[in-house]
Automatic annotation (TrEMBL):
CDD domains named in the record: S26_SPase_I
Protein name according to UniProt: Mitochondrial inner membrane protease subunit
Subcellular location: Mitochondrion inner membrane
GO cellular component annotations of the record: mitochondrial inner membrane peptidase complex
Species name: Psilopogon haemacephalus
């Protein structure tokens, strides 16, 4: 009887570890569901919207300008942020706020990306903390899941004019 109970317990633990490893790999390498909070990506992503983030793009270095990414916050490594990629390494980007009279520009260093929220007036982004290392990117948002009225692929940036193609 004891042998039977121990056998079932170890089988259960074995399956738990096995499925736990599969789930970890799926969420780490394939993607997952993310709940977004804060106003920085409005109007594209509203507070409490639910999106799907795929992680393969970051592993294969397929992140492009205009993509919306989930990134470990440079200010607080315990939290993630959601921002749009405005510039990749070597790109010239506008580093000033839209309301600034004199515009300043800079180049994104090797191994970094320039991130900005779509709501430029209410976003803490690369204009505050500078270029972000590519290694902090966790995934690329593919489409919105919730609310159902907005289900589907995300809109283009309302700030497309800030992308410089020099």
């Amino acid at each position: 009887m004891l042998r039977d109970v121990l056998g079932k317990t170890f089988r259960f633990l074995g399956y738990t570890v096995q499925y736990g490893c599969i789930a970890h790999c799926a969420f780490e390498y394939l993607g997952g569901v993310v709940v977004c909070s804060g106003p920085s990506m409005e109007p594209t992503i509203q507070n409490s919207d639910i999106v799907f983030s795929e992680n393969l793009s970051r592993h294969f270095y397929c992140i492009r300008k205009g993509d919306i990414v989930i990134v470990k916050s440079p200010n607080d490594p315990k939290s993630n942020i959601c921002k749009r990629v405005i510039g990749l390494e070597g790109d010239k980007v506008c580093t000033s706020n839209p309301s600034d009279f004199l515009k300043s520009h800079s180049y994104v260093p090797k191994g970094h990306v320039w991130l900005e929220g779509d709501n430029l007036r209410n976003s803490t982004d690369s204009r505050c903390y500078g270029p972000v290392p590519y290694g902090l990117i966790r995934g690329r948002i593919c489409f919105k899941i919730w609310p159902l009225t907005d289900f589907g692929f995300l809109r283009a940036s309302p700030n497309g004019h800030r992308f410089l193609d020099d």
